């Protein structure tokens, strides 16, 4: 083959890799935010309990969190393209099953499988991207990839609300089928070669088992504490012991799933990841709660609720590039900590939601939250990636992604616990609306959730500041 043909094939591979990675990065946040808008309609269709409603969202995130690190390691060992292909098949087919669900339990089961597929495609898509593009081009293509994430967050509520109102909630899941099939076809027929940066190394099976069991123990145990005290306590205790066992094992083996030694020896890396965990734990459930509030309490349609939720991701999209450039010129700790403080303020203001809270108040508060997260996310990512040597970029990126998914699961886990405490077995939805008995309990659980999120994020300000100044700490 001539050099010109090789160059052409290489250029095509780059275009395909960028398209596929951007599409997979778009799909996950788009589906999360779109499904959040559809959940009130789904709850009415299946007459779901309050706790079951929270599991419509949390099931997807739970399995994504459980499998993200193990599948990331498997992809490094046996081939990133291979894992991506299998993941896209699982993700697309489970979305089709979710669209055909005839019960709340079937939908939750489909969402669990869908999250497993998402864990296989999200990390490997970015890994393929960094495998194909040379270092001098990675900043540009990763920037495009981040833009795809925020585009998904921005379009999800709007498109999800429109499709739910005019095409039915099943159409939201069906949209994954053509999009996923397109990405799958592009990878199989256009993307040649395979990438396995750790081929020949060992896979820590005991560590993977501990990791995959500790998260569901914690997430499932917390909501059971109010009514099933013994079961909840046993599961939470097992989850805490699992976390300790996982950390102990990963710090002692030669080829770990997750390099926990970085947390001990690199202050910037440790506290930046802790700040990310806290931020996602405090903010992720906001869209879920407001979707329920706007449709159940204030009586808006899914489409209107979706439009009202757009300001937050839109402001994030606008501010994130600016914040990233700003963190190149000044200490990331300053920009990120200001962002965390703004986020705390936004969460605090949502504590006062009532039945007749004005739309102007809600939109204004969402703008504050969007500005806070926009100022926090890029500088915090900059701090994480700048705190390690280039050979550890993959580890650093994977660790930050793990903090994100665990934080998202914890955020919905907190909401599930509040629903279990305050609403419990009370009939939640009847005729597509909250029951009279559930309405005041729902509002109370929403307010208490925002109280917890506010305190979490307030603590996150200190975690953000505790990392120290980059110029003083240097790099690992």
Describe the structure.
By secondary structure, the protein is an all-alpha fold. It folds into 3 domains: 9-192, Growth Hormone, Chain: A (Up-down Bundle); 205-256; 260-476, Growth Hormone, Chain: A. Helices cover 81% and strands 1% of the residues. The chain has helices at 3-46, 50-78, 80-99, 104-132, 135-166, 170-174, 176-190, 205-224, 229-250, 261-265, 267-283, 285-297, 302-309, 311-329, 332-349, 359-386, 393-422, 438-466, 470-473; strands at residues 429-430, 433-434. It has a two-stranded antiparallel sheet with strand order 1-2. α14 runs parallel beside α16 (359-386). The radius of gyration is 22 Å and the shape is globular. The two termini are 43 Å apart.
* Tertiary shape: globular
Count of spatially separate domains: 3
Task: Briefly note the CATH topology name of the largest domain.
Answer: Growth Hormone, Chain: A
Q: Which percent range describes the beta-strand content? A: under 5%
Task: Please give the number of β-strands.
Answer: 2
pLDDT averaged over residues:
84
Count of DSSP H/I helices: 19
Question: What series of H and E elements makes up the topology?
Answer: HHHHHHHHHHHHHHHHHEEHH
Bin the helical content. over 70%
Which strand order does the major sheet show? 1-2
CATH architecture of the largest domain: Up-down Bundle
Structural class: mainly alpha
Distance between the termini: 43 Å
Looking at CATH, the homologous superfamily of the largest domain is: MFS general substrate transporter like domains
CATH class membership of the largest domain:
Mainly Alpha
Rg from C-alpha positions?
22 Å
Biggest sheet architecture: 2 strands, antiparallel
Low-confidence stretches: 1-9, 472-476
């Amino acid at each position: 083959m001539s050099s010109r043909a090789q160059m052409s094939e290489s250029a095509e591979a780059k275009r395909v890799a960028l398209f596929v990675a951007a599409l997979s990065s778009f799909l996950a946040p788009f589906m999360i935010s779109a499904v959040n808008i559809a959940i009130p309609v789904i709850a009415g269709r299946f007459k779901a309990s309050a706790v079951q409603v929270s599991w419509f969202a949390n099931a997807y995130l739970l399995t994504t969190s459980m499998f993200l690190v193990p599948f990331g390691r498997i992809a490094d060992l046996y081939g990133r393209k291979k894992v991506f292909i299998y993941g896209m098949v699982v993700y697309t087919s489970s979305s089709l099953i979710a669209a055909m669900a005839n019960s709340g339990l079937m939908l939750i089961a489909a969402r669990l499988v869908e999250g497993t597929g998402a864990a296989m495609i999200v990390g490997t898509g970015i890994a393929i991207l960094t495998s194909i593009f040379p270092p001098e081009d990675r900043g540009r293509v990763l920037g495009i990839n981040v833009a795809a994430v925020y585009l998904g967050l921005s379009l999800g509520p709007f498109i999800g609300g429109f499709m739910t109102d005019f095409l039915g909630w099943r159409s939201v899941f069906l949209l994954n089928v053509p999009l996923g099939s397109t990405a799958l076809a592009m990878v199989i027929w256009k993307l040649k070669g395979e990438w396995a940066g750790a081929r020949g190394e060992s896979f820590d099976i005991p560590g993977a088992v501990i990791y995959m069991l500790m998260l569901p123990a914690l997430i499932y145990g917390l909501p059971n504490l109010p009514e099933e005290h013994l079961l909840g306590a046993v599961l939470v205790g097992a989850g805490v012991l699992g976390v300790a066992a996982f950390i102990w094992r990963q710090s002692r083996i030669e080829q770990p799933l997750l390099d926990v030694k970085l947390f001990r020896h690199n202050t910037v890396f440790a506290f930046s990841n802790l700040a990310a965990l806290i931020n996602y734990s405090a903010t992720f459930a906001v869209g879920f709660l407001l979707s329920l509030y706007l449709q159940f309490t204030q009586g808006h349609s899914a489409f209107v609720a979706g439009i009202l939720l757009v300001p937050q991701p839109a402001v994030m999209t606008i501010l994130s590039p600016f914040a990233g450039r700003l963190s190149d010129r000044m200490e990331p700790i300053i920009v990120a900590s200001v962002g965390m403080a703004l986020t705390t303020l936004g969460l605090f203001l949502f504590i006062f939601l009532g039945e007749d809270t004005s739309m102007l108040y809600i939109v204004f508060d969402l703008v504050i939250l969007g500005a806070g997260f926009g100022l926090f996310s890029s500088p915090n990512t900059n701090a994480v990636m700048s705190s390690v040597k280039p050979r550890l970029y993959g580890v650093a990126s994977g660790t930050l992604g793990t903090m994100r998914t665990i934080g998202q699961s914890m955020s919905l886990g907190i909401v599930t616990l509040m629903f279990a405490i305050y609403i419990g077995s009370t009939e939640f939805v009847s005729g597509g609306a909250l029951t009279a008995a559930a309405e005041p309990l729902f509002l109370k659980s929403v307010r208490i959730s925002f109280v917890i999120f506010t305190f979490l994020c307030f603590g996150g300000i200190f975690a953000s500041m505790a990392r120290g100044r980059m110029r003083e700490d240097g790099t690992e």
